[in-house]
Structure formats: C-alpha cells, structure tokens
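Figure caption, in words: inputs first, then the predicted bound structure.
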Amino acid sequence: MADGSGRKNGRDSGPRRQCVCPKRPQRSTNPELGTVYLVGAGPGDPDLFTVRGHRLLAQADVIVHDRLISRELLDRARGDAEIIDVRKTCGHGERAQSKINTILVERAKRGLTVVRLKGGDPFVFGRGWEEWCACRGAAVPCTVVPGITSALAVPAAAGIPITHRGTGRAFAVVAAQGSTSDEAAGLDYGALAKITTVVILMGRANLAIVAQSLIKAGRNACTPAACIERGTTPRQRSVVATLGTIAEAADREGLRAPVVTVVGEVVHCAGECGNQLVGRSVPNAELHEPLAGRRVVITRSTSSSHQLRERLTAAGAITIDAPMIRIEYPPNPDRLDAAIANLGSYQWIAFASVHSVRGFFERLATLGQDARALSPCKVAAIGPITASALNKRGIRAELVARPYSTSVLADDLLANTADGTGRVLCPCGDTADSGLPQELRRARLGVDGVVVYRTVTLKPEESALRAISDGVDAVLCCSPSAARRFARLGIDIASATVACIGPSTASAARAAGMPVAVTADEHTDRGLVAALAQHFRSAEEAARLHVEYAR
Ligand code: SAH
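Bound structure (S-adenosyl-L-homocysteine present):
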C-alpha cells in the first residue's frame, strides 16, 4: 500500500521514478574493493539499534549518515572513522541522492568499509534500494542490514498497537511527502480509506490535506487519530484527536517533523499499556524520565560502570563512557598472601569498597581458598554496596558503617573491639585515597593495610573526547583518582554539572579545579543518579519560575 510515487488514484497520471538498478548487477571480482553496508539505524532510541549494526559501526572506515541519526550512535564510531553528514555535504533532492551514491561507490572502490546509516529501516521510504542499485551497478559489494522502522516502533512507543484483533486487522504505511500538496494528494485514498489502520510517514506538512482526503474518500471524520513527534526519543511528544481534528491539534501543540500519524480504532488503546501517555502533549521527561535527553559523562572504570549506566539510561540520560581509570588486581600479592596465611591473627577484616572485596576474594580464589578462610575474623564494611558484594561471596558483615564514611567505621570498630588490642586487616587500594587504614590508626587500632588493587589512569578514547567536546550536561565522578584524571584533560565543562558520589571525591575534584555542583547524600550509584536528577529538576523549576515572574 505504501506509495511515494506520485500516482493519482492508482492511475499513472504523475511522474514516476524509475528504478535504476541494472537487470544483472555486475559481479565484483576485485578483492581490493570495500563493502557498503546499508544499515537501518532504528527509530531514534539508540537502544533500538541492532547488534549487527553496532558491530559494523565499530569497524567502519567511513560512516555516511542522515539527519535523524542519534549522536549517541555516531559516538560509537572508531575515533579515526570519516563521518559524513549527507544533509550538510550533499543538500536535498535528486542531485543530492546521486552525490550520496557517488560517495558510497568512490569510498568502497578505495577499499574502505562504508556504513550507510539510514533512519529506521533502509528499505522503508529511505531510498535504500536506489543506493543498493548504485553500488551493484558499479560492482561494489553491498549488504543490507535491516533496522526497526519508525512506522511500527513509534506507534508502539506511544502505546498504540497497529494491529488488534477486531479493530485493527490490517495496516497500511504511506508516505505523504511532497513539496506540493498535489503530491500528497496523489495517494490512492479510496483504497486507503478501507484499511483499518493507516500509518502516515513524512506527513507533517501535508497532514491537513491527507486527513481531508481520507474523509472525502469515505473515512469517518470521527475515527481516532494520533500524531507522535520524535517517537522513542526523550523528546517524544504526542497528541490524540480525531481524523477531522488531528491537523489542527498538531498545529495547536506545535508538533514538528519528524512525526508519525496513526489513523484507526487502535488509537483508542493509546497509553493504556503504560508506555507513554498520549492525549496531552507531554514530554516524556515530565512523566518518567528525570534526566531525559541529558548527556552525561561516566568517568568511572568500565568494569564497574555497568549499573550506573543502566540507572542513567532508565532515567532517560544519554551516557558517554569516558573511563579515566582502570582497576587491576593484585599488584604485588606477597603482603596479601602473608596476611591471608595469618588471618587467625586478626580480630577484624574491614573492607572499604567493592574493589577491595573483589581484589581480596580474587586472590583467595587464586590461592585455592574460599570464604571459609575468613572464619577466624569478624567482618566490617563501609556502606551497603560493599556489604552486598560480601554477601554475594557468602559473608554477612557483622558491622556495616552507615553513612559511607571511614571515620564512622573507625569509631564503630573501636566501640566493638573488646580490649582495643585486636588487629584489623584492611584490604585497600594503592592510592592515597584509600584512607581507611589511616583513619583506623588515628583511632589507635592496630592496622595492617594491604594493597589488593591498583588504580591505573587511562587516556580516554578519541570518540569519547569528541562526544564531550560536542557538549555535555553532566560529568559524574565516582572516585578521587577519576576526578583528578578528568580535570587534567583540561576540557571546558563550564556549562556542565559536575556531580560526585561522595565528599572525598568532591573535595578531590574541587582541589583539581572542577566546579562541583552536586555531592550525593547516599554514596551509591542510586544516590548519585537521584541527586543529579534532583539538581536538574530544581534548575528547571527555577527557570520556569523565572519565566513566570518575567511575564
Ligand atoms: N526509513 C525510515 C523512514 C524514512 S522517512 C523508517 O523506516 O523509519 C522519514 C520519516 O519517518 C519522517 O518524516 C517521519 O515520518 C518518520 N520518522 C522517522 N523517525 C521518526 C521518529 N523518531 N518519530 C516520528 N517519526 C519518525
């Protein structure tokens, strides 16, 4: 049913685009040729990009992309990849398309791997077939990697099932673009009016004409209709009306391209599945996602940033991984091995972080031992996250310091050490930041601090630096060493919010010259994300009030 050809009512009255594909594509025999991959980028949310697409993006020498491609996908390109924005390079129209074809063919003939990244699916109103034909016509190998089309994903993201037993047994997807209203009017409305669900792409400018044409062709003006802007992205907004009023409602709400419009009884289901509310024009941010669209840099080591990234993404943020440090175990195990051999001589073993738990238990495992080795000692931990890392290894800490603070743990240990003479084993890191042994000594406890992990500073990847210099909303620091390393990069982040997981990280960041605006009260990933969200909420509220006063 999809028809972007300009035909009127099924008859050949308008100009018709010819398929330029040669009948028999030439076979490539040249091993020096590169390959062109026509890759579907999905509807907008980077999480809806395919695994195969990710793999190709990371390998590509050249990436040729359209306007609607998310920045986050491009950030995953190799640092030295050539990135071509065809809108900027080639402009619009027929000539633009032939320039794009030339770029693809020319780069592949130089032996380069080219990813042609196209919104949604490459073969849904994307002129993908023309590009495929241009490559094959020039004997350049070309492979299509399907993507999730906005025609299906955008209604789903707004809670609209485009099929539904009873009310939506068939659907049509149409393109209603055209520089003149005649082109949009060139669809076969008689046939379309009989199809239960009609999905309209590229139709923002012509929405009123399309809606009126459907009504004239016999579709009831009261049929529910929804218009969804930037579906699946943090800026998704939508409006529900009827076929007779949808164009006016979209104008009133200021909805702008790209939009997908759905016409049919299925629109009644909108929002019921709890996806996104439809009916009012409400940005997702207000509903579920306090960090919607915020670009947030994670400076923590890759091995421990997974959960933080998940939390940020769930809050709507776009994350940029820029690990400043890497954790290595164990640096020099001699002292640790001696301590493990003498665990019976310690009254307490105190863990200050998840890294100290991991480092200690890795070594224990290497020595062929397990949690039972700790049976002569009592176990203390700073904070619930360290306690839960111990729990996973079968150890329930007798003492968990809350809030997260070395001095609180020192006081607690002193209070719980029978005669003040028992020794404490303290597995820690190699930086001055591992302050627990000093704190315990200050409390006059006998302490052996043994290094179980080492912090190595890293040079961030080019792609991460590029993403940061494109502009970010926040930089998250979870350790003093990561904060110091980030500060040394000397990147201008004056307009970004620096958020730290706790006071020691905050003071290290400040000392290194970073303008810390947020320090989490709860020194966990959850606490950090909540504090950042609260900060942005307050800033937005203040800006809103300012506007109201100014009126
Ligand atoms: N090949 C693409 C469609 C290209 S045509 C696909 O399969 O999705 C471009 C049109 O797609 C836009 O005008 C708009 O109608 C629709 N579109 C693409 N992404 C969209 C999004 N995130 N939200 C709303 N509409 C979108």
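The radius of gyration is 30 Å.
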